[in-house]
Write a structure and sequence with these properties.
By secondary structure, the chain is of the alpha+beta class. The chain has helices at residues 39-45, 93-96, 109-119, 162-165, 171-181, 197-208, 221-229, and strands spanning 2-8, 11-16, 28-35, 56-57, 62-69, 80-83, 86-87, 125-126, 143-146, 154-155, 189-193, 213-217. The protein folds into two domains: 2-157, Medium-chain alcohol dehydrogenases, catalytic domain (Quinone Oxidoreductase, Chain A, domain 1); 172-229, Rossmann fold (3-Layer(aba) Sandwich). The chain binds zinc ion (2 copies). The site of one zinc ion has 8 residues, from helix 2.
C-alpha cells in the first residue's frame, strides 16, 4: 500500500510499504477513506518529538471502511468507522473509569519505559505518533491496523458523509473537552483563545453547553470570520 512516512526533520514521503495484517484477535483492518493532518503532526515534522524512526507511518485522525476483522473484534466488514487516536484496552483500571488516555495496556511496556524516563509518566498508545506512544502505524495511509477494535472505533450511522464525522477522531472531542473543563453553565459568557480547528470546535461546544455569548480571540481574520458563522 501507499503511506505517508517520516524520514527525519522536515522529510516526509509517500512510500510503498507492507499492507497491515491482523496480529491480535481484537484487531481490525480499516481501508482509509478520509484522514486529517493535525497541528500535533507538525511536532513530528519539525522534529520535536523523540523516538521517531525512519519509515514510521504518520496520521492519528482517520476513518474508513472495515475490511478485515480478528475473531475478537466486534466490528463487521463493510461498516464505516471513525477511529479515535487513543489506543485503549477497555478493561484495565483506567479504562474502567473512562480514562482511556491512561490505559495500562495500549502502549507496550518497553515504550512505556521511554515515557516514564523522559516525562516522569508513561504515555498511552497512539496511532502514528512515535515509539514513545507505542510505535503504531498511523492512518495517513491506504490501510491501518486498529488494535482493540472493539473499544475505540465509532460506527458511523448511514446518511452521514466523511466530512461530517471525521473530526470525531480528535479535534472535536478535544475542543469539547476544553469547553467541558471550563464548567460552562447556561447563560455564561465564554472566551476562547485561539480559533484554529480545535478552538472553533470549542466555540461550538460552548454554545451547545448553553453559553449565552462566546468571544472568539485570534489574530488571523479568516479564523474570526469562521468563528462568526457559529454565532447562535
Ligand atoms: Zn490530532
Ligand atoms: Zn485499558
Amino acid at each position: 500500500m501507499r503511506a505517508l512516512t517520516w524520514h527525519g526533520k522536515h522529510d516526509v514521503r509517500v512510500d510503498t510499504v507492507d499492507d497491515p495484517e491482523i496480529l491480535n484477535p481484537r484487531d481490525a483492518i480499516i481501508r482509509i477513506t478520509s484522514t486529517a493532518i493535525c497541528g500535533s503532526d507538525l511536532h513530528l515534522y519539525d522534529g520535536y518529538i523523540p523516538t521517531m524512526q525512519a519509515g514510521d507511518i504518520l496520521g492519528h485522525e482517520f476513518m474508513g471502511e472495515v475490511v478485515e476483522t480478528g475473531p475478537g473484534s466486534t466490528l463487521q466488514k463493510g461498516q464505516r468507522v471513525v477511529v479515535p487516536f487513543t489506543i485503549a484496552c477497555g478493561s484495565c483500571y483506567h479504562c474502567g473509569k473512562h480514562q482511556y488516555s491512561a490505559c495500562d495496556n495500549g502502549n507496550p511496556a518497553d515504550n512505556q519505559d521511554i515515557g516514564q524516563e523522559m516525562y516522569g509518566q508513561p504515555m498511552s498508545g497512539l496511532f502514528g505518533y512515535s515509539h514513545l506512544t507505542g510505535g503504531y502505524a498511523g492512518g495517513q495511509a491506504e490501510y491501518v491496523r486498529v488494535p482493540f477494535s472493539d473499544v475505540g472505533p465509532i460506527v458511523v450511522p448511514d446518511g452521514l458523509d466523511d466530512d461530517e464525522v471525521l473530526f470525531l477522531s480528535d479535534i472535536l472531542p478535544t475542543g469539547w473537552q476544553a469547553a467541558e473543563n471550563a464548567d460552562i453553565e447556561p447563560g455564561d459568557t465564554v472566551a476562547v483563545w485561539g480559533c484554529g480547528p480545535v478552538g472553533l470546535f470549542a466555540v461550538q461546544s460552548a454554545f451547545l453547553m448553553g453559553a449565552h455569548r462566546v468571544i472568539a480571540i485570534d489574530h488571523f481574520p479568516h479564523r474570526l470570520e469562521l468563528a462568526k458563522k457559529f454565532r447562535c
